[in-house]
Amino acid sequence: MFDEAFACKRWTMRRTLEAVRAVDAQAFPAGVAFMRQQLNHIAIVEELFRSRLLGEPAPHAATNTAEVPALEELAARLEASDRWYVGHLAGLAPAQWDEALRFRFADGRDGCMTRREILFHVLNHSSYHRGAIGHALDQAQVPHPADTCTVFLHETQPGRRDGRLPD
Hints:
By secondary structure, this protein is mostly helical. It has helices at residues 2-21, 29-54, 71-91, 115-139, 149-156; strands spanning 100-104, 110-114.
């Protein structure tokens, strides 16, 4: 299920980025700034949790930055993150899923989560912030893309419309 969930996450992020690119930045500068900040936060949190999964030092001291990168830099980082997580899933042995990982959150507090919990958090976290971006897209008069599992399944597996599940 995680494989399909991360494939859906990648698909929804691509659609979200396409919609953000369609916003008239001259007419809605505050909206674009907000959307970039949300994307920056998503990227940073995913990079932080990637380091925790790998047992590496945290690459960021906080979950956002004073200077927000350009949209295309954020898009590249988010695409790279999605590719990394998909690859990470493929390499996990069954015993690793419930391994407890201890780490320090950006606020300095200690944390402990299993790999499964971290992966679930990464999925949920990006979904929450894409919802905020969707609201900003509405305000900028750009239709926000549907990013539900049902739309993903039926767009990527059209045979489902005919009642056929994939093999």
